[in-house]
Amino acid sequence: MSNYRNVTFGEHLFSKIDRNTYLQSLYHDILFNYSRRIFRLREVEEKKINIEDALGFADILSKSEGTSLAEIHKTRAQEMVALLYYLYPDNEDIRYYLGEVLANTGNFLGLDRLLPEYETADTLERICMRFNKNYLVVPTSEGDRFFPAQKEIYDKLSREELSFSAPTSMGKTFMMRTLIKQRITEGAKENFAILIPTKALINEVSSELIDDLKDLLKDNDYRIVTSSGLDCLGTEAQLHFRCYT
Fold it and tell me: 243: which strand partners?
């Protein structure tokens, strides 16, 4: 039996793109110029960057699919256009590709903040972008949107059992706040518990929850109760939402 399988052109391209020495050189030079600007190293000569090629690579990376490196590629694409935008804010090509990359990666929060009037020139992509913006709307706040990875996890939070691991920047607490807010808004009379790894974070997290939920807790007879101390799991702090009706 043959061990070969059919692969798409995209899979082949994205599986090798990290090894492209020209892309590595462009990325290095962008970081170099950004560091030079941040640290005001005027005595250091600025690297010459082919902006058109850098934008082309960023656009390709933002469409990465079919490999385990897809999320890394999309992050790299956003880094490249964001840094170029910082370095050359008046460049219209960079502004356009910034919008393209943010839309391709589903970063509509960044798109709304940086380029609220952005519209892609391609009709099909414009339709897809509007669909994705509606799909990623946060249930309790139509003005906010999930990142695609957040949406994927959030849709599974209602399962009886779910375990996932994500980095600090993922917004795990935000997703839990949103779920609790949605459930209370829907009239659920349930108790919720959040385990927090350190005592230092308990006041910060509880304050964020109170600010976000505001009168919703009082109107629905919910209280936030905090406790600290090691339990059998080694958890130092706990935060509970208790319904008293």
Answer: 222
Q: Can you give the C-alpha Rg of the chain in angstroms? A: 22
Measured distance CA(10)–CA(67) in Å, rounded: 9
Burial of 34 (0-12, 13-18, 19+ CB in 10 A): middle
CA dihedral 142, 145, 146, 148 (to 10 degrees): 120
The dihedral of CA 119, 115, 66, 128: what is its sign? negative
Look up the pTM and report it.
Answer: 0.76
Which class for 130: exposed (0-12), middle (13-18), buried (19 or more C-beta within 10 A)? exposed
In the chain, domain spans:
9-135, 151-243
Block residue for tokens 């808004």: 185
Calculated CA dihedral for residues 14, 20, 24, 26, nearest 10 degrees? -100
Q: How many CB atoms lie within 10 A of CB 141?
A: 11
- Residue 48 has phi, psi (to 5 degrees) of -85, 130
CA–CA distance, 223 with 150 (Å, rounded to integer): 27
Residue range 151-243, CATH number: 3.30.110
**Parallel/antiparallel/unpaired status of strands 222-228 and 237-243:** antiparallel
Separation CA 234–CA 236 (nearest Å): 6
d(CA 99, CA 115): 7
The reported pLDDT for the residue numbered 232 is 46
Say which amino acid occupies 47. K
Report mean pLDDT in 10-residue bins for the chain, 245 residues. Answer: 63 86 98 96 95 97 90 95 97 96 93 88 83 91 87 90 84 90 90 82 85 86 79 51 55
